[in-house]
Amino acid sequence: MFWVYVLWSNKLRKRYVGSTAALQKRLREHNAGKSRFTKAGSPWLLVYSEELPDLSSASKRELYLKSGIGRVWLEKLLPEFRNSK
């Protein structure tokens, strides 16, 4: 199984969308500063996740959530975790 997830940084007031086969391990890596893109926002809070059957499905869902319509969907689902502008 694979996961698509949304993290939130109170420090940056930003969301991060990613995918992985090991959700808790990946969250620990983000919070340990092992990802260049999320290093500055630590600590990250897991605010949403979806389990998907395969890598292809997870990749497609991640791309959707990063698209304009996907970001709008996330803002409706998680209004308290809106990226600052």
Which range does the strand content fall in?
25-35%
Number of strands: 3
Tally the helices: what do you get? 3
Residues in helices, as a percent range: 25-40%
The ordered H/E elements are EEHEHH
Strand order within the widest sheet? 2-1-3
Largest sheet: 3 strands, antiparallel
- SS-based class: alpha+beta
How large is the radius of gyration?
A: 12 Å
Unreliably modeled segments:
none
Oligomer kind: single chain
**End-to-end span in angstroms?**
34 Å
Shape: globular
What is the typical, i.e. mean, pLDDT? Answer: 96
Walk me through the structure:
The structure is a single chain. Strand 1 (2-9) and strand 2 form a beta hairpin. It contains 3 helices and 3 strands, in the order E-E-H-E-H-H. The mean pLDDT is 96. The protein is α+β, with helices and mostly antiparallel strands and 85 residues long.
From the structure above, extract its key features.
about 80 residues, alpha+beta, about 35% helix
Short description:
By secondary structure, the chain is of the alpha+beta class. Helix content is 36%, strand content 28%.
Summarize the helices and strands and which ones pair or pack.
Layout: E1 2-9, E2 14-20, H1 23-31, E3 44-52, H2 55-66, H3 68-77
Antiparallel strand pairs: 1-2, 1-3
